[in-house]
Fold each of these.
Amino acid sequence: MSRNRKQAALTKKSRNLKDFTYDELLDLVSGLGEKPYRAAQLYGWFFKKGARAIDEMTDISKVFRNTLKQGSYYIGLPALTGTKHSGDGTVKLLFELEDRERIESVLIPEEKRLTLCVSTQAGCALGCSFCMTGMYGPGRNLILSEMTGEVHVATGLVKEGLLKDIKRITNVVLMGMGEPLANYEEVLKFINVLTDPKGLGFSSGKVTVSTAGLTPGIKRLGRDASVNLAVSLNATTDQVRSQIMPINKKYPLGGLLAALMAYPLRRGKRITIEYVLMKDLNDTPEDARRLARLLRGIPTKINLIALNPPPGSPFKRPETECIGAFRKILMEAHYDVIVRASRGSDIMAACGQLRGREQKALTGKGA
Ligand code: SAH
Ligand code: SF4
């Protein structure tokens, strides 16, 4: 079958069972004349036992398996096309999707944690001028099976010893390629599967959604989920923020900060403020003082990240002393501040360096 026909067949007729929410799966099994417990059985096979094909689900009757196959249902996962290991222990996973789009996820081992950073889009339309994903332009929304697929494949690799002694992913951050809240519906389904004990089973306190500040999406997320929220603030005035993050023209700082102030947090939880420091642009003592004023009253912890300058970027990373001085001002204003180490920059896996397209060079494939 030609590639186009195969794709048409896949998109028009076949359905990846892992794109069904639990409720949709219940409807599907009852529509096929099966008892509701079949949905739980299928879910268990997808998310606990890691089934990769219908015939692996051996305690499901052959008749029902055949019904599923004849109905053109299948179990699909993103294809892992490579892994890249950084000198600091970070590992980047490269994936090709059914339509040959490419995405990346990153495994970041820290002391007691292993964090998986997942992509939610195959690019990003928001075009922040300091971010490589944004520089490479928009990409389509990822669907449920693709996002759970990133977790599934990464979990399998970790179990098999990819990171030697570390055998379990403890945290998931939606902080890879793309803007999660610009893909709201599928991301919400993904969060539900991630935090469903019948699904991937992460506690919602171990899941973080990072956004460039889509104010309406933040309000919705506050109503729909109880995961952690991280906001990429990156500037303290509308003028500078709009210059580096065009989305600020649509959702300026005033409304964004009001949404953060109103965000329903579970007890003891705080919003993470991400602030990428860029030399002479947003790194002055005046910026630090303004940031302290802007965040007053919002329960936050602040992550300062020194810019990983994209190639040809006009922006530069500040000097270490300057980062220290910025941090000190915030600490003196009683904020919790950490300077986040840039992990995986030698393999282009650090914040803002994911772009998917890199794999063309690695594999020689692609347009
Ligand atoms: N779109 C979402 C999540 C993906 S970006 C968001 O913007 O929050 C993840 C993080 O990488 C953001 O905090 C962003 O500010 C940061 N980032 C982007 N480009 C960067 C760069 N060149 N150096 C350091 N951090 C960067
Ligand atoms: Fe998109 Fe986030 Fe990069 Fe901005 S920083 S371009 S929102 S991925």
Amino acid sequence: MYNVAIVGATGAVGEEFLRVLEEYNFPIKKLVPLASARSVGKEVEFKDKTLKVKELTCEVFEEEEIDIAFFSAGGSVSAKFAPCAAEAGAVVIDNTSYFRMDPDVPLVVPEVNPEDIKLWKKKGIIANPNCSTIQMVISLAPLHKEFGIKRVDVATYQAVSGAGKKGMEELIEQMRALFNFKLDKKVEEREVFPWQIALNVIPHIDKFMDGGWTREELKMVNETNKIMHSNIEVAPTCVRVPVLRSHSEAITIYCEKEVSVEKAREVLANFEDIKVIDNPEKNEYPMPVIATDTDYVYVGRIRKDLYEDNVLHFFNVADQLRVGAATNAVRIALKWIEIEGEAFLKDKYGK
Ligand code: A2P
């Protein structure tokens, strides 16, 4: 049993952590919810208990004898406090982008590269990838094994939950204002997205970088190859859409071998945590309303290119707060316990 901290417990992902840890019956001795000084004294529910939120400090990990710390409070918070947690003897599972490309920090999707978890000791930190990357690599892994992927073109349709609770609130506020015929005023009050998000799509997530690519797009490029230990060419276009919490992706893969739709369906359906929904004759395909509140990556609209034998197209959807964040982190922690747990407890507590 482990002492577990959630850093950012009052946020959208933090709240999902509480639900996922409970559902997975995570072996918890003590749960400590942490957030900024603003939230001290706020309460969160876990199982039948009400827990008081504590302030995140460098000392709290030692004081509370934390063994596993889930971080989801932004990159600057992880930069400052994840090393404190690791120093205090905890394994950090970090949901931000801060450590993801650090060569001494494994970047893990347990269905794809569980073997990398054993590198955690270098810094005491395991990074949780970007949400769009997680659901994409889960669907790429079985196809790569079967057909050998050389290149991926992907367009994302990303939910507002990726921008945290404030992002979700901004969409809801704008929808409400729209139905009251007051959208103009609310749009001027926008804080999170660069343009109106209600009834709009915005082809811009995170900062613009060199060459006109956004940082979100470059995360998908770099993280995909770190996780898959590959050299695949990846060309993403990341787009924010007015959906609350599941991301969708239209993906095209260019392969070494000739592709087959039947084989693709088979290897996808047999892969861990994927559900294939692909019955066009019944209008059945993946959508955010199907994926939300579940732990699966849904794949469908699988079809061969009209021109090239080695090119396959498909669509995938997964819940950003769960598969793209909390569930992946909890799955990392469970795998870590399986691989390292016994030795860790023996080292730390002598038992
Ligand atoms: P707080 O509610 O006290 O601001 P979201 O991603 O939904 O916006 O949530 C962000 C989470 O990160 C919240 O729990 C928030 O706590 C927490 N957080 C943000 N800044 C800090 C900080 N400087 N120290 C500790 N927690 C922080």
Amino acid sequence: MIVLGIETSCDETGVAIYDSEQGLLADCLYSQIEIHAKYGGVIPELASRDHILKTLPLIHEVVAKAGIQLSDIGGIAYTAGPGLIGALLVGASIGRSLGMALDVPTLGVHHMEGHLLAPMLEAEPPQFPFVALLVSGGHTQLVEVEGIGRYQLLGESLDDAAGEAFDKVGKMLGLPYPGGPNVAKLAQQGTPEKFKFPRPMTNRPGLDFSFSGLKTFVRNTIAEYRDENDELDEQIRADIARGFEEAVVATLTIKCRRALQQTGLRTLIIAGGVSANIELRKGLEAMVAKDLEKRDSKGKLFYAQAKYCTDNGAMIAYAGCQRLMAGQKDDLEIRAQPRWSLESLPAI
Ligand code: KG4
Ligand code: ZN
């Protein structure tokens, strides 16, 4: 089955063509970063308007790139939530209308399921069951995954998501939006362990997260080191970025280790924008090797290539294809849900 995937939940218009026989045929992405950068964050109305302009031309582009005709498409998957309601409605309306015009089934896909399944696009995909750490701009969740739609939430952030904390710290450090990759870049110049920021909620049991205290700690540290002209020394700035990144990586690593121990599982996958972070990958890789060595068993860490960690159409096309092939499809109502629990999804 050839599936067109459409992602418009936030500030990226992503479209892709996934073929159940041949894999990913093509994907195209348009990022709105420039539009939102001058405001320091995503402006929902501007996001929706731009998705309206970009989605159809991108669909034509991806169809041409895949070397297929519109009539070859056997199903359409679009992100139906969670996300910005106006932005979601653009993808949902275009997906549903095109589905009706082509007379093919359509399906609203859960954005975080898309992220969770993105490592399946790699040449060596993980096997179920596994523990998934979902770390994006809107979510930080640990999920026990037995199969598609068989998700049990083990823990989540009680306040800011990991990516959100990266973005806010980026802003505090005067870095352009989005903060995550820029904080990571600046952190490379920082002195390791110069600042030891708190590892929130790691000294008590449980798998929930909280990043808002860490963010405040960083804000106070920045204030403390500002000189009389309100300037921050360049090296101190990099050291703070490094200390923050170290704290996030250590916190996520401790919780992932706990989740693997609690579930007895050996495979860990990471997905979502923050899973593109190199230090996080390194930290988790080392933990998985060491922890499983103790358990005398083989384990492994999986993640998608960087362009499929952040928002993209390929993950939506893949997730949609699995569900459409299982016979799932939309009913008559057009639904877009800004909030949507991963656990409420049906299994296939
Ligand atoms: O998954 P995603 O593209 O969108 C959401 O679903 O939210 O994630 C975006 C988030 C942003 O907060 C961004 O700053 C963060 O992922 N991010 C990173 C890195 N690349 C993207 N955070 C840390 N290090 C990175 N290399
Ligand atoms: Zn996302």
Amino acid sequence: MIQYSSEVRAALVEKRPLVALESTIISHGLPRPKNLEVALEVEEIVRSEGATPATIAIIDGVIHIGLEKTELDRVANDENFTKASIRDLATATASGLSAATTVAATSHIAHLSGIEFFATGGLGGVHRGAQESWDESADLLALANIPVLVVCAGVKSILDIQATLERLETLSVPLIGYRTKKFPGFYLPDSGYTIEHEAKSAAEIGAIWRARKEVGTANTGLVVANPTPLPLNPTLHERLLKDGLAKARENSVTGKAVTPFLLEFFHANSDGESLKVNIEIIKSNSRLAAQIASS
Ligand code: PSU
Ligand code: MN
């Protein structure tokens, strides 16, 4: 049920640094044809920093850790790819389905194969109105239960950021700002919330990661918040957020469709601006994750 690419297998055997990459951003987070282009570019960035990229997805019921070009092409272009979180792994593999993996599912699979470092765009979290809808991403529980370090640009403003930060605290997930004490809001480098701990270098983050073992807290994940190098115009951001949330309500979008719906709304209504930002975020996070893995 699990297949490694030759590149990933060699890196695992030789104990060289690896970085897991998720596939939901490819299949459901970025529009075609840019998605394939970005997926390939991001892998190249990881290699250029001396680590091996392991993009993770489920193809025809097989969990792939590391994708060949033709497989990446399918994730990017095949309409039949659903979005798999942890609970979907057994159904997808047993039924021969194809699915892209979320942060939660990617962390789970990375850990299965001994990969400790993972780069994504933004984490899932507590949705606005969660008091009513109970919509909280499985990413949060995964971070609490799976020892994988995730580099992200914070959580998207489509979420309830304060509630998400409170949940991360309750779940005892360490949170480190990379060269910042401002919690990034994905499209914006500052969400208005602060982070207690700031690391100045990849090596410092690597040291914190290893220190978890000494103090007996190596059973959880760890979030590295890396602010976007290219901010979206705050006025445009404000408008997109207001209109996107209203449209989601209007169309009664629920469950796992919520995040892709809002992302698609941002891309479709910002004249490409949110897409540009999204791409820079993924690239920058992948570079940092590779530097941490190599440190
Ligand atoms: N953030 C992004 N782009 C994405 C996602 C998050 O910038 O595509 C995806 C990730 O795969 C994340 C998932 O794990 O959305 C969270 O979905 P949900 O809210 O349904 O748990
Ligand atoms: Mn949800």
